[in-house]
Amino acid sequence: MAVRREEERTTVDRYPGRVRVNHWITAISLILLALSGAALFHPALFFLSGLFGGGANTRAIHPWIGVVLLASFAILFVQMVRYNFWAKVDTVWMRHIGDVMSGHEENLPEIGKYNGAQKIVFWLMTLLILVLFATGIMIWYEYFGASFTIEQQRFAHIIHALAAVAMLLVVIVHIYAGFYVRGTISAMTEGKVTGGWAFRHHRLWLRHEAREGVIDDRQTPPRRVHPGPAE
Amino acid sequence: MGLQSQDFARISATNMRPPDVRHDFEVAKLIDVSKCIGCKACQSACLEWNNLREEIGFNTGSYTNPHDLTPNSWTLMRFTEWENPQSGNLEWLIRKDGCMHCADPGCLKACPSPGAIVQYNNGIVDFVSENCIGCGYCVKGCPFNIPRISQADHKAYKCTLCSDRVSVGQAPACAKACPTGAIVFGTKQAMLTYAQTRITDLKSRGFQNAGIYDPPGVGGTHVMYVLHHADQPQLYAGLPNNPRISQVVELWKGLTKYAGMAAVGFAAAFAFVHATIARRNDVSRAEDREAEHLIDEEAARGRQT
């Protein structure tokens, strides 16, 4: 993690490869879960089961994708949790959420690696994934149909559905924020953001990173090649 | 019946109204518990007609065998020994358990797969295996705990009321096999009328609470019982007193389904509108320059410490 002077710009390392790989495994699992889950949630969306090779395949594969998601998110959680504990500045920042939505970030306090909304998204995802996994186990009929009473399974179904809707809302916020706040996507694709982005959105984090040192990634100019003696 | 594509009253997970120009009379099977001798001819007939085989089980001290409905046993005699506190008599209550073919079927309401559960307009509720995805939602929808999912092929199974026999004018196999006439089959109206004669007879024999079991909570059923103690149906191996589709299932398949779609749709719409009208949250060139200063400052501070 470091600040890098590049040829045309300055960048700050935000996510190493191991975090990005995990993030995208989680993201892809989540999209597949949303599509296969939606197919079983509403008749109007049952056609989505075609993406998974039909209804029976959708039913069989959905819980296994959930297992993959749980595993990849668990690692992501360990990688990110230390940046996500709530601080006083987050409360101040959250009070100015209107300024964020209208693009007036100059009114906001300086914040570290994550702002209040990002931390809320992190903890909501953690909570909802745990709820979805626990209730998902209860309604995984192939393996756990006999482990829970029918009444317990009924409650698990409705909680699973409500938690899934809540999860989709959180995901919409998460994805939208990534696109709305320009310059964010590169954090998860290339692993770095521009200095200006870090200054605007996470100044405290930028200060911290800069104090660690600046790496000069500019290429040294090629040595001039002296023409040799004419042959 | 016969041309089934035009005989559906309801089709699972389908918003369209099924073709309903043709109308059939409702049928019903009436099981007179007071006439049942527990011979299990109905169980055998069911296995035979439907070409099913039950595994050889083991004895746990009850005549109930197998111990529960299974993907192979779509009907089951449940034996209950009950001491009547009023008469002091030991009564052997034998109830033929199986799908009740509800007018408002919970299994069909819960089913997420289009056309996996259908209700013909004669009242029979049938599982269509080729559309069944094996999710087990019908198990949670059913107020009588009837459907069973095979662990071999992951399909749901239950009594079909011999829809194949009924469609060609035959009574279900169990009714045909019953040696005492405890199981009779006909139009629902005829069965209700016939049940009244049985109830009158039972009352004249001292069963003051004799009555019919046609629970209104599920809109009535197309399998009905005549019970000697209709005031206490739970005596008969836990026959529910007032069965209805669980409120949790109603909420899950009702409000949650629509509210969930609406919430996600609204969030997506809000994102679209915001993306269109809000000021771009972009990094300015000034901020890029400020960042350079800040980095130099902090880097210098870092070198000092």
Question: What would you note in describing this structure?
Answer:
The complex is a heterodimer of chains A (231) and B (305). With 231 residues, chain A is mainly alpha-helical. In chain A, 61% of the residues lie in helices and 6% in strands. Chain A has ten helices and four strands, in the order ββααααααααβααβ. A four-stranded mixed β-sheet of chain A has the order 3-2-1-4. In chain A, helix 5 (116-138) runs antiparallel to helix 7. The radius of gyration of chain A is 23 Å and the shape is globular. The model of chain A has no long low-confidence stretch (mean pLDDT 94). With 305 residues, chain B is of the alpha+beta class. Chain B has two domains: 4-241, 2-Layer Sandwich (Alpha-Beta Plaits), CATH 3.30.70.20; 255-304. Chain B has helices at 41-49, 106-110, 137-141, 163-166, 173-177, 188-204, 247-253, 255-277, 285-304, and strands at residues 8-11, 27-32, 75-83, 90-98, 117-120, 125-127, 148-149, 156-157, 183-187, 211-213, 223-227. In chain B, the strands form four sheets. Chain B has a four-stranded mixed β-sheet. Chain B has a three-stranded antiparallel β-sheet with strand order 1-5-6, with no helix packed on it. A two-stranded antiparallel ribbon of chain B has the order 3-4. In chain B, a hairpin with a 4-residue loop joins strand 5 and strand 6 (125-127). The model of chain B has no long low-confidence stretch (mean pLDDT 94). Chains A and B meet through helix 1, helix 2, helix 7, helix 9 and helix 10 of A and helix 3, helix 7, helix 8 and helix 9 of B.
